[in-house]
Amino acid sequence: xxxxxxxxxxxxGTDPVIDWLIASNxxxxxxxxxxxxxxxxxxxxDVNQGKIYYxxxxxxxxxxxxxxxxxxxxxxxxxxxxxxxxxQLNDELNSEIAxxxxxxxxxxxxxxxxxxxxxxxxxxxxxxxxxASKGLKVPESRILNTKxxxxxxxxxxxxxxxxxxxxxxxxxxYLFEEKAYVSLVKGISNEDALKLxxxxxxxxxxxxxxxxxxxxxxYVDGQFFATAIVSENGxxxxxxxxxxxxxxxxxxxxxxxxxxxxxxxxxxxEEGLLMGGIDLVKCQDGKYYFLEVNPIGQYLFExxxxxxxxxxxxxxxLIKEDQKxxxxxxxxxxx
Length: 335
Description:
CATH topology of the largest domain: Rossmann fold
Number of helices: 12
Helix content: 25-40%
Strand order of the largest sheet: 16-15-14-17-18
Order of helices and strands: EHEHEEEHEHEHHEHEEEEHEEEEHEEHHH
Low-confidence stretches: 331-335
Number of domains: 3
CATH class of the largest domain: Alpha Beta
Mean pLDDT: 88
Distance between the termini: 22 Å
Structural class: alpha+beta
Radius of gyration: 22 Å
Strand content: 25-35%
CATH architecture of the largest domain: 3-Layer(aba) Sandwich
């Protein structure tokens, strides 16, 4: 059986995969934290035996493959209006959930995880180091906290820099009344640098590449679904979220060179990532640069634009892994 650890809200990429699993008569089960801690679906854990029962089904015995999406998220159980100690109560309840999750994941560690849980929460900065070790080009990057250091790095990069976050959890939407705000990648000029305070919070600065176009790749265990994001008005350094619906921006199927595929495959295998979204850029000089990888990245937008049918490919991969014998699965775990 395929176990999907997802979110209770609509998941734009996960739900279409579930549709394909249903169409294929695959054996699967989706569980969310809301199912367990808010809706109180029947759950029984025999701690002594290390057995987990959900709706009277023993997950230890039935599950062969675990597909992790957006499962481990903080929850709000008590509002400020309901209790004066709402913050402390929510912290305590989320601490209980965190302890439960560690036990839950450990109890299923012998299953085929897509991707292994220990590899899903990647560090963007470490990924740049490791990508470079596999022969992939990466932009010059510095974490700086002084105006003088930024000015020096600007000169080193011919006055072409961008500023961006170095964590992934910070990509949140800030909601206020009827508006939503999000932090974006932004170019920084000499004028911007002069306005900086003498010292500031450590921030990631990268060289601004002479980019021709961006390439969004979704990787499924050796398969590459690459989308070139091309603008009629030329490449804009600002985050593509601002231009997703721009009529002058086109999303086109793209064939990566064999050498690039080999380097990316080597990198993904080294990091134990069976699936994930990879951001690349192709520069005016024809060189490709690696920017980042997101093991649980989104893919539906590009899939629809390019008729890739990525949800179908994911469903087929999960079914194939679920149908393997325990011996075959053990062999894969050893790789």
